Amino acid sequence: MSSAFVREREGGEAFEDLPDRPLSPHHLVTPSGLSRMDDEIEVLKLRLAEAQAADDKAEVARASRDLRYLTQRRMTAELVPPPSDRSHVRFGSSVTFARDDGRTQTYRIVGEDEADPAKGSLSYVSPLAQALMGKAVGDVIAIPQGEAEIVEIR
Question: Which among 22, 107, 109, 110 counts the fewest CB atoms within 10 Å?
Answer without folding.
Answer: 22
